[in-house]
């Protein structure tokens, strides 16, 4: 598999050597390739992708430009034994290397993992991860020069850190009515980019503690991530699921919490027929104290024809006003939306 893509755009491009943006035409290039060889027991895969500095895409999400990332994956699958307690198992190794178009190393990582498949669709596994990451200040703002400070605080234009992580995951389906799953991971050396996380979690780097307006001061931290979910389906038509996710990062140099977010998600779906359903979705995040609710009725009698009628509600609980920044206790509604969407596929041949 491979893809090649070129982009051209007329817009403002930031020049880190000049410390400001210029209106110009930028031509970019992107690529993706994958070599895959599956087998009964041994599987390997080699893939890579890259984007030049001036690559721009208005559709989709581009995490980083001026970067290349190559990955190698190898896995061994055991012979399945459907009647045994241990039905099957696999062990795999995932290695990645990331570098810019000037050949500078940005990141490397290695991630060995093992997984065991038991009876009743029960899965238990885990692994470790370790690697090294570098950050360059010209990706965050101006590059330092005589008489001009750079984007990073202090006398270093680069930050680097070694990181180590351990994680585990599990899941089981004791019956057709309900299932459980979850995972947990803890890492040391994961970067805090020093952007801050809203009014609840301002910047906690050494430079920011001295002055809130100080330049960025990225640094490694300790990260905890947890996720668990429960699904319940008492009938064929009704299904409900509850999901909880926690993500927390604390700086190693100051011991302060960079952010701590807890996300709760509830989804309930009732399928009247093959073509019509009613769905309720509620999401709550503690980072910005938002509560989002959606009711949706859908009718899809045939491919290309659909009717959706819904209501969205956006509120805050003990959050901060998005306009004034002031703390407001209790519930506050930020918006509500009623919507109807109709689509119809018209086929004509000539």
Describe the structure.
The chain is mainly β. Helix content is 1%, strand content 64%. The model has no long low-confidence stretch (mean pLDDT 94).
Give me a quick take on this structure.
This protein has 350 residues and is an all-beta fold. The protein is built from one helix and 16 strands.
**SSE order:** EEEEEEEEEHEEEEEEE
Helical content class: under 10%
Q: What can be said about the biggest beta sheet? A: 16 strands, antiparallel
Distance between the termini: 35 Å
Number of strands: 16
Structural class, judged by helices and strands? mainly beta
The average pLDDT is 94
Oligomer: single chain
In percent, how much strand structure appears in the residues?
A: over 45%
* Count of alpha and pi helical runs: 1
Give the neighbour order of strands across the main sheet. 1-2-3-4-5-6-7-8-9-10-11-12-13-14-15-16
Overall geometric form: globular
Low-confidence stretches: none
Cα-atom radius of gyration: 25 Å
Features:
16-stranded antiparallel sheet, 350 residues, mainly beta, 64% strand, 1 helix
Helix/strand layout:
Layout: E1 2-15, E2 20-37, E3 42-51, E4 67-77, E5 86-99, E6 105-118, E7 122-136, E8 158-172, E9 178-192, H1 206-210, E10 219-232, E11 238-251, E12 257-271, E13 276-285, E14 290-302, E15 305-320, E16 327-343
Antiparallel strand pairs: 1-2, 2-3, 3-4, 4-5, 5-6, 6-7, 7-8, 8-9, 9-10, 10-11, 11-12, 12-13, 13-14, 14-15, 15-16
């Amino acid at each position: 598999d491979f893809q090649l893509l070129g982009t051209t755009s007329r817009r403002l491009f930031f020049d880190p050597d000049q410390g400001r943006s210029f209106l110009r035409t930028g031509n970019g290039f992107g690529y993706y390739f994958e070599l895959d060889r599956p087998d009964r027991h041994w599987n390997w895969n080699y893939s890579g992708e890259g984007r030049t500095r001036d690559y721009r895409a208005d559709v989709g999400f581009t995490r980083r430009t001026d970067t290349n990332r190559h990955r190698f994956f190898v896995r061994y699958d055991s012979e399945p034994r459907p009647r045994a307690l241990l039905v099957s198992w696999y062990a795999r190794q995932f290695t990645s290397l990331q570098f810019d178009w000037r050949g500078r190393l940005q990141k490397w990582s290695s991630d060995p993992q093992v997984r065991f498949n038991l009876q009743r669709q029960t899965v238990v596994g885990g692994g470790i991860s370790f690697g090294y990451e570098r950050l360059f200040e010209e990706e965050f703002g101006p590059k330092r020069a005589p008489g001009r400070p750079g984007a990073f605080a202090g006398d270093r234009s680069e930050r680097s850190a070694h990181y180590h992580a351990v994680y585990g995951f599990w899941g089981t389906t004791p019956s057709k009515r309900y299932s459980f799953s979850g995972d947990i991971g803890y890492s040391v050396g994961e970067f805090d980019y020093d952007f801050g996380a809203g009014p609840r979690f301002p910047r906690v780097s050494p430079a920011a503690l001295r002055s809130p307006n100080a330049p960025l001061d990225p640094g490694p931290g300790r990260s905890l991530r947890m996720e668990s979910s429960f699904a319940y389906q008492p009938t064929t038509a009704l299904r409900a699921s509850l999901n909880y996710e926690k993500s927390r990062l604390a700086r190693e140099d100051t011991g302060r919490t960079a952010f701590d977010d807890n996300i709760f998600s509830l989804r309930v779906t009732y399928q009247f027929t093959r073509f019509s359903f009613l769905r309720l979705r509620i999401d709550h995040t503690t980072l910005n104290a938002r509560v989002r609710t959606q009711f949706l009725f859908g009718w899809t009698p045939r491919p290309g024809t659909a009717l959706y009628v819904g209501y969205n509600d956006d509120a805050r609980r003990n959050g901060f006003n998005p306009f004034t920044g002031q703390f407001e206790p209790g519930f506050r509604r930020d918006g509500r939306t009623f919507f109807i969407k109709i689509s119809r596929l018209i086929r004509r041949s000539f």
